[in-house]
């Protein structure tokens, strides 16, 4: 819990329209500081739209019912102030950084919320913090390597470094393992577990069951723009629930704290 028992994030009856299409339908969710949670759903279920609502790219529809849209107990935020609350890694961000920038430049750009460095004033403290983060993520060997020369897994860890520069309370990972091979997936999951154990909350958005690290204790199922189930991981990740979510027969198997779907 945050100080004074105020949730880090609080949504109630959040509906978002894109033109004439309803892309989020009456979402309600509370996220506490330090909580590790996964939003699991098929492609097109509204998961990325949910993230864009958190970052104020999308705004909720005003309705007759009570609508709550608060971050840290506040309804009004400067977008730049949100950096101390949430660090974000998304596929859109990965695409934006697929260019001739080194790992050092990418992480430093996080201090300015920019795509690359321009005429920014870089302090010695920023440089020290960049080295500290790259060491924590075990990628100092990439510091002068360009993003275009990295594997997908290496680039993803560098983007996580960029997201951590402001010491956010929660790291938001939007479909983080797309394009990762088995080795990169293993390294990525190990990195996420390390971040969680260091005290940063994880909000994982995914359609892959195996992305859900053991430290995540709560799972929300999402389909057709709605949250359809929310609860403890072991109660939510069942054969019946996942079968209904993805409309395919599955058997859920648990192994060393991870959950896997088989039989489809």
How would you characterize this protein structure?
The structure is a single chain. The longest helix is centred in the last third of the chain and has 16 residues. The chain contains eight helices and eleven strands. The N and C termini lie far apart (about 40 Å). The model has no long low-confidence stretch (mean pLDDT about 90). The chain has one domain: Rossmann fold. A six-stranded mixed β-sheet has the order 5-6-7-3-8-9, with helices on both faces.
Q: What distinguishing features does this structure have?
A:
264 residues, alpha/beta, Rossmann fold, 6-stranded mixed sheet, globular
Helix content range of the residues, please? 25-40%
Q: Structural class from helices and strands?
A: alpha/beta
CATH-defined superfamily:
P-loop containing nucleotide triphosphate hydrolases
**On the 0-100 scale, what is the average pLDDT?**
91
Name the poorly predicted regions: none
- Strand arrangement, largest sheet? 5-6-7-3-8-9
Q: Please indicate the percent range of residues in DSSP E strands (runs of 2 or more).
A: 25-35%
**Can you write the helix and strand succession as a string?**
EEEHEEHHHHEHEEEHHEE
Q: Say what the CATH topology is.
A: Rossmann fold
Q: How many strands?
A: 11
For the CA atoms, what is the radius of gyration?
Answer: 19 Å
